[in-house]
Design goal:
The chain has about 250 residues and is α+β, with helices and mostly antiparallel strands. The chain folds into three domains: about 20-35 and about 40-80; about 80-140, no CATH class; about 140-200, no CATH class. It has helices at about 20-35, 45-75, 130-135, 145-155, 160-170, 175-200; strands at about 95-105, 110-120, 125, 220-230, 240-245.
Length: about 250
């Protein structure tokens, strides 16, 4: 009578691509430390610290893969790719050289190398990868980081914003950088906000319809109220209506 092998007799081997090996090792280390955590240990801080490292490694990997794919496509089909044009004057850009850059993202700092081109007409440098990532020239923060900094600056002082960003988002932004964002982008953000509110609050008629909503919810709730306004003798009283509509999602 043959004996069936037990589940512990066979071992399962998982093969990862070389680029994913450091990430897999970091996750395996996290599982081991969670298993060895003594009773009463701070499990949340342990997991958050490890996952922050994994996020940074994934971001670096994604940047590296995008850069490799772009270089491979350019080397395989050089004649099929149209020449890059300057976004301001549309003049063909001259290939420059690779330059390193460090930016602040919501997941930490990202270090990468990208190709920088030059406009022969305006003598300005352009990095297409920077535009794809949403980074302005000579700016070391992404648009999502700038948005969070600008939002906090509108509600607290610069030192308090520095503390809030570090505690709530894990972003190490100095008080002087918060002030710079406020001065550099505050006016433009305020203008965009006012234009957005003006489009929503503008009166509308049959010929001028209201602004389109940002979302189209399935369920809407409308709260309406009315009051009667007394008029002169001989005239009917006028009714003034006020309504508020909001979505349930």
């Amino acid at each position: 009578m043959s004996q069936q092998p037990s589940p512990t007799d066979s071992t399962t081997t998982t093969t990862f691509p070389p680029a994913l090996v450091p990430i897999a090792e970091a996750l395996d280390e996290l599982v081991q430390e969670v298993h060895d955590l003594p009773p009463g240990g701070d499990l949340e801080d342990l997991i958050q610290s490890h996952l922050a490292d994994v996020e940074r490694q994934c971001l670096d990997l994604a940047l590296d893969q995008c850069q490799r794919a772009a270089e491979q496509q350019a080397s395989e089909q050089p004649e099929a790719l149209p020449p890059l044009a300057c976004p301001k004057c549309q003049a063909p850009l001259r290939p420059g050289r690779k330059k390193p850059r460090t930016i602040q993202t919501l997941h930490g700092q990202a270090h990468f190398v990208r190709m920088v081109y030059e406009c022969p007409r305006r003598r300005h440098s352009h990095a297409p990868l920077d535009r794809e990532m949403g980074v302005f020239p000579h700016e070391h923060m992404t648009l999502r980081v700038i948005r969070k900094v600008a939002y906090e600056v509108a509600h607290a002082s610069f030192p308090e914003v520095q503390k809030h960003l570090l505690e709530q988002n894990g972003l190490a932004v100095s008080a002087s950088e918060c002030q710079r964002v406020s001065l550099q982008y505050g006016g433009r953000l305020d203008q965009l906000q006012r234009e957005r509110e003006a489009a929503w609050t503008a009166p509308w008629t049959q010929s001028q319809r209201p602004a389109a909503p940002e979302r189209t919810p399935r369920r809407r709730v409308v709260e309406a109220d009315a009051t009667s306004t007394l008029t002169r003798a001989g005239e009917e009283n006028k009714m003034v209506y006020c309504a508020t509509a909001f979505a349930m999602e």
